[in-house]
């Protein structure tokens, strides 16, 4: 029953609070569902990483990357089978292509990294990306950034250095790759903002096409016959990636980004869970300490952005 119908049937004024309350309740339910969907997407993405780590002991990362994008492309083509070709059209082909390249670089760096280090350690370093996105938006998109946010960014980098431990004899080159993947992911995210005029389907198709095309170039040089027992795992790479993407898109359509942002750090919990369950790995004290610093800095920057947005809204209303 719509609010208009309620008001007309009950005489108007008396029913208004009920309709407003129902609307507020519906929004809370939608926001809660959005959070659950986001957590589902994080579980899917981190489980995909765990599958990739398991398979990387026997297959080259490039073959895993190809499977991830090729299966994703097949699923996207199936979903948009009636309008696949028309949806490829974009107003910004260069930006879409660069965005696809950044996504391939991100997955390549991360898949190589988790071949040598733990999932939780790699994810902790990767989780510096929200800070990098804030910094990149200020440098390249002209968004304003105040001194307090700069402090948050510096603190997050300190947290990353705690995990990396350069100069202490404990630095693992693969950890540097996980750290670098956060930069390429941030670049891809900024490019996503640049191409936001395109429909979501267009961006999904371009990502799948670019990823499949680039990984196919390396495939003949690294291909290894897939064991029958591993076929379900290769399929899981693409399915989990596609499912995670679908869940996160739906989550952001139901809940404001400001509501979902803090829950993004739950990926650390999922990564630690999969790492312990499948590989018996637990993050060391430096990873835990560094992760806490990064998460704390990220939440601080998020709170500053939310407060700034609220202040701007008040100014516009005035």
Would you summarize the structure shown here?
This protein has one domain (36-252, 265-317). Helix content is 79%, strand content 0%.
Key features of this structure:
globular; disordered N terminus; mainly alpha; 318 residues
Question: Please, could you describe this protein's structure?
Answer:
With 318 residues, the protein is mostly helical. It has one domain (36-252, 265-317). It contains 14 helices and no strands. It has helices spanning 3-10, 16-55, 61-79, 84-88, 93-114, 119-126, 129-140, 147-164, 173-194, 200-222, 231-254, 257-260, 267-279, 285-317. Helix 3 packs antiparallel against helix 10, helix 3 crosses helix 11 (231-254) and helix 7 crosses helix 8 (147-164).
Number of helices: 14
- Please bin the fraction of helical residues: over 70%
Bulk shape: globular
Class based on secondary structure composition and strand pairing: mainly alpha
Strand content: under 5%
Number of DSSP strands?
0
Number of domains: 1
What is the alpha-carbon Rg in Å? 22 Å
What kind of sheet is the major sheet?
Answer: none
Average pLDDT number: 81
Distance between the termini: 34 Å
pLDDT under 50 segments (min length 5)? 1-18
What is the string of helix and strand elements? HHHHHHHHHHHHHH
